[in-house]
Amino acid sequence: MLANKMVVVLAAEAPVGVALNTAALLGVALGDHHEDVVGEPVTDASGAVHEGMCAHPIPVLRASGEQLRDLRAQAAAREGVTVHDMNQVAQRSRTYEEYAATLSGTKPDDVEYLGLGLYGPRAAVDSLTGALALYR
Fold first, then answer.
1. Whole-prediction pTM value?
2. CA 23 and chain centroid, separation
3. Quick one: DSSP state of residue 127?
């Protein structure tokens, strides 16, 4: 069993396209931040190479906007837990520079979260997300 766990939590009220985009963006962020999550390339019986996939199962859960805000704060306070977030400032921005500039002037209470990616010790991540339902 893997010592660390990875979870994506999406805003229950987000439209499907926004939720899918949020999950994809959080997956990229998690994979980039943690070197040990993507496995080595593998070869099939014909010799074709298949690039590495995430070595962790990634449960996709859902939460309300208020739950996402609370979860982000709780996760950020946990030792060893990394929190990646996707918010409406990022969604509305045309470039990363615009996102950074706009977010720097946005009060924390005004940030609306569309999703979170959590990575850390299994017990910590489970205790933070265990009561959340699967995204369906």
1. 0.91
2. 6
3. H
